[in-house]
Structure formats: C-alpha cells, structure tokens
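User: Fold this; tokens only.

Assistant: Input:
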Amino acid sequence: MPGFRPRFFAPAGSVAGPGDVLALDAEDSHHALRVLRLRPGDECEVVVGAAVHAATVLPGATGGASKSVQLRLGAPLEGADAGARYEWVVALVQALARSASVDWSVEKSTESGASLIILVPAAGSPRPAGKDSGKQSRWSRIAREAAKQSKQPAVPEVEQVPSFAAALALTSQRRLRPVVLDPLALQTLYELLAPGGAAAGVALWIGPESGWTEEELEVLKVAGAEPARLGRGVLRTETAGAVAVAVARLALGDW
C-alpha cells in the first residue's frame, strides 16, 4: 500500500512505546488481515494513549480468523504525519432519525472531527425512545472505522440517551457551550463561535428531518442554548451534523 499507512487504535489501557510489541484486538486484527490484507513487514500506525506511533506488522499473524496481529512500534509521529489534533471538544447532539440517516451522520461527523456523539429522541424522531443495543453497537463500530480512515486522534464516544434532560446533563458535565442549529436563526454558527469559543468546547444540537418543535426549542433556550444557522440553505439532518462539526472546528481555529 504505497503512500498509505492504515491506522489502528490500541486496546483500552495499553501502555507501549518505541520498540515494544503490541497486539491488536480481535476486530482490528480481522480488519487488518481480511480487509486490508496486511502482511509481515507492512507499515501501519497505532494510536496509543495520546501518541501516534509508526508500526510494522510482525510475522506469525497471517493465519485463521482467530489470529491476533502483532505490531512492532516505531517512533511517535509528529506534525501532519500524526493526523488530526484538536484543542476543543466539539460534541454532536443528533436527534434520532431513520437508521440510515443516523449511520451517515455518525460516520461523516466522525470524519469531520466530532469528539462525542449523543443520540437523543425528539418529537420528530421516527420511533419512540428506547435504547437499541444492536444499533448502539453498530453506531460505535461505524465511528471506530471512520476514525481510523480519517486519521482521528481518538474514537468518538457514541452515546444514545433517553431524553433531552439526559443529553443536557451530559453536555453540562463537560462544560460544553450548547448551540441549537436553527435555519431561521439570525446568526451563523461561524459568527457565533469565532469570537471566543467556550470554556471546554461546544455541543451542537441537530434536529430531526421535520426540525425541532417550538416546545423543544423552548427547552433548549431555557437550558442556555444559543441559536445559530449553518448558511442560507436547509440541510438534511444527516448532512447538517457533519457540516456543523466542520464549521465549528474552522470557527474555533481547530481544523
């Protein structure tokens, strides 16, 4: 794979440095062997904690599906070679929509640099509230694959919550500035964030296909959410999240 080094994330809790051998988990090992078809000597890169290391595939991991891929870590990568680096937390609070739309939103907002994705039921969501563990797992996998492909510094946490209150509690705990995307808002998201950002970052609330109801907008207003629009047009819910994350990163000088 000339010119391309696939990225992996070390298993949680891993501590390793240059010269150490690191084993990928089962999912990444399968992806490395069956999808990317890596072979001994191929180069890749691994995120270990806050560092990104160059790595080389070691012999002995090219057998059956149960094999674990072993990597020899090289020096930490610096600058552009290390991929994305962010100062601010940019969270996406996405109203639940059709499954395909949520899949798209999770994938593309991860590629755009979302730090956290919170999925919340809204009045316009197509199904009642209630956590679906199967879909939750799929959305987490989608985020992981998108983070690897787009050279993100971490896999964004994907959390499905049962209510507005739960979503507001999560963003408040992290000291995130709440912004509700509304195509009728007078100020653009870029204009709102460019002057100074927020204490720790921003939480971007994206409505369902039918938009937020007046009652939902009032709840967000009482919670301190500021309205902003992306531009002069109206985007689909699955597109708006990724665009909002990208605009926020640009406005914060964090792209």
